[in-house]
Structures
1.
Amino acid sequence: MICLCMLFLTGCGSDSYVMSYDAYSANSSFTILSSDQAGRAETFAADLCIANENYNESAVDMSEAEAAGLFSLGDKQTLYAKNIHETLYPASLTKVMTALVALKNGSREDILTASANVKITEPGAQLCGLKAGDKMTLDQALRILLLHSANDVAIMIAEQYGGTVDNFCQMMNEEAKSIGATNCNFVNPNGLTDEEHYVTAYDMYLIFNEACKYELFKEIIGMSAYSTVYYNANGGEISFDKPSTNWFLNGGATAPTGITVLGGKTGTTSAARNCLVLLSSDTSGKSYISIIMKSPERAILYTEMTDLLSVIQK
């Protein structure tokens, strides 16, 4: 019975009930095992990787990262887990959820208009430089949001689809619960630090996995750079031309032999430190999601992510 439980905790269930995922709930998909008795319910976690807080820790040195996870999507297996149910500041990993809610509620041709609320004065905050009255399509906004990690664009998206930032954050939290990400809470659409704004590495896997169901999202996160023109309130052109913040895509880091990084999202604040979530594939075409949160330095983040991706080949 013990062996069966351990297998369940590191793989994916095939029998439980439709419910929000909560790693610590006595009624979560964690705790409901297969039964040959009459009646079988379609599981909430049938297509998801389930894992305990820590798993396969000896496979790789993740001593600098506060939390990390590696998930095989096709096999529905967790290959590595460290502190994946610990709540942490997500920084701009938040923007994956912002993009997901926008994709669910909008069309790429929608025209978005910036309000005066896009002005962000926090030191070091990544910005597009939006001003009130600036206009762009959702397609443009998502590309600038995810590649350049622009905090002001996140505000514009939130107001477009939520009416207000607070309403949009409620939509984010409702979406999180609907996909089983029950150990996170969002109070802004960009990830700027707030004590009430947090996520776990496992919830980040769930959110990123859901976003990857959208082809536009996967296309955007795989771009190495983006150039476009949007317009100010008077119809004047504003040029935008920036590289991806992801070192695996802009040439700053190299994936292990046999692994292709298909795309991802970065996140950095003084509180969250350095975070990264990736979608990758191996030579057989299998897909993987890998996550590292709260790494002390950017160079260490990419070194450890490369080491984590190497676990795929072991």
Note: The chain has a mean pLDDT of 89.
2.
Amino acid sequence: MKIGIIGQGYVGLTISIFAAESYEVVGFDINEQVVNNLNQGISHIEGVVKEDLVSLIKSGRYRATTSGKDLEEVKVVIIAVPTPLTEDRKPDMKFIESACKTIGENISDSVLIINESTSFPGTLRNYIKPTIERYSKGYVKHQYAISPERVDPGRVDFNQENTPRLYSGLTAEATEKTKNFYSKFCNQLVEVSSPEVAEAAKLFENTFRQVNIALVNEFAQISHTLGINVYETLEAASTKPYGFMKFTPGAGVGGHCIPVDPTYLATVAEANGAPATFIRRANEVNLEMSKYIVDRVQADNGGSLQGKSVLVVGVAYKPNVADVRESAAELVIKHLRDRGAVVTWHDEVVATWQGEISTPLSGADISVVITKHDVVNVREILASAPYVFDTTGKVPGATGL
């Protein structure tokens, strides 16, 4: 059976590789360079092994394309596109609409359409289905279902096979077809009563993390004011064997989920008359953490950063991946430059970012550690500047949160 997967990023390509063991996969993406690279076996995603990709291409089980016409004969279509925020931090549905347009204009036979992209409850029923119907040349009775992605870039212990997968269709037939489809490469499928439950569950998973990270970030500020070591306090609290889950403070939150998903939940809640005060405040705390860090650095360095060379260590949003989406480093760098600092950054994993390149880990007046990759030596970080501020808790000897 031939399937189409719209979007060949972290989510779409990962699904493509696993699904291609059981199906013939057409991976659609609007980025021509990404598509050309994929068809040559060159992956831009951590965890996708080149040899695996090349093997699937040679066997005819996978190919990438920028042409919507290549989706004409598929029986299942998965939407796996980004759902980012606009500049004013509101849900941005342009990629989902583009995917719906591609489906509507190119697929005339009835197929199963599964949304894996994260969005607010009601997206499948009230947005995706009518949008596809609007773009279709004539009425096509597609089946619609949701199975929210659960992909954690760089993680090796959980993957598409062993991560439990939620799913639900708009009809019983769509639900059953979705179950049959994923059962070929996923070991644990969890059916829920409606697509809205699955959509809400995905948002709450990451809202839970956003809120708890905000709590521990605020606690780090309180601990500093009280002269208490926040990391020692958290270790002490985590000795309780029940009723506590340890989170650690940092420069903020990053990635494609935690900084974004709670806003989708808050937006739909407020649109329906329900308050989202707690969610909104958690987002504010995490966004404000970058300013707090720069305030601390400035206070420790004579009250001014004007003209000082500041090296930001690590611009990826998490250790050991090259993913810079919503990275807290971006806000930290902005605050530093706004205060007159001459900012460069070092990240051996990312290497290039926003038209700049990674600089050597040395020669700065101040170093600020945002992300600590395993390949970066602690001694080299400490030697990179007379003053080192560490937001990760992984650089003993540095000034920390």
Note: The mean pLDDT is 95.
3.
Amino acid sequence: MTKLYDAFSKITPDNLDAIHEELQHRDENIIVDMPTPKKKRYGSLVVALLAVILIVCTVTFYPSSSSTIMAKVDIDVNPSIEFSIDANNKIVEAIATNEDGKNILGDMDFTGSDIEVGINAVIGSMLMQGYIDELKNSLLVSVIGDNEETNEQLRTQLTTMIEALLQSSSIDGSIMSLTLTDTSSIEDIAKEYNISVGKAEIIQKLIEFNSNYSYETLKDLSIHDLNILLENYNVTDVTLEGTASVSEYIGQDKAKSIALEHANVSESDISEYEIEMDYEDGTMVYEIEFKVNGIKYEYEINAYDGTLINDEPINSSSSSSTTSSSTFSTKITKDEALQKALSHAGISKSNVSDLDIEYDKDDNIYEVSFEYKNYEYEYEINANDGSIINYEKDYDD
């Protein structure tokens, strides 16, 4: 029983004194439904559960005298909760904007209570249900209202409180936060994709950095994955406290070793190396680029399990243990594509300069270019059978 008590105590934010202090100054009727223990021998277990009951039981506050909505506060992890508050930061309404959010709210009704009380209970419920942990430690706080100064004050206040709540549960959180005033354009998008206004704003910022992204492709991503993408693109107009955990991924070093092994090259052979996290075809991937002897290699590796999603093999002697998981559709190698182009031009490899070979996965072709005696050669080689699809030779003056 002691271990169970300690476990519940650890995941439950210690804010009972603050809540009691608030309730003592209230004139409202407060109804709290709690189960009654059936037998005394379960007494120690009931004591351990009391802190949790404050979050998961039905709590009803009767409305405050003021019900005019002055601002909204969105809390996003994957569950999304939207609080509407009045001028005194009292909750007018709390709604879930997705199915996971409904699991978090349950039967709780915070009408008339301080926004801090609602945030405290929601974060506690997210912790208890496993939506926030050491591996996925990110969340988003969005304050939406007409008064920019008031928005900023509330944003600072809430992020500081949430950071303390996470630390009390031994979690180094990564809290993204932003304030919004004019949301007329983004609100329609949020409704269309059934996401919060804050999450829609984050996705919009990512689309500005990468035109391949869209609301449709990113709407189901967790806040944690969106946080990692924001860090990847170095988005600076979103306030960030803490660092998003990457412990659930294989890591950059492992991804690099997979790519080098598949390319059958050593680290000392490569130049112009670059690696970054991205989102492709429904999963987080490591995008790796490097050059060996002037030839460029590009790899996409599943960030969770190391599977090769896309690659450009250099020869057929690559490790069978890695190529078996590759999904590329080429039948000839880069060297073979290059030899097709050189043979057509009647030139040996040792005599060309500015050699570049790239694989276009969309068209399944190799694009080969090089220079020889003031002429620039460009080839498109079918990656299935090695046939020359297109050929250009231009004088370079």
Note: The radius of gyration is 28 Å.
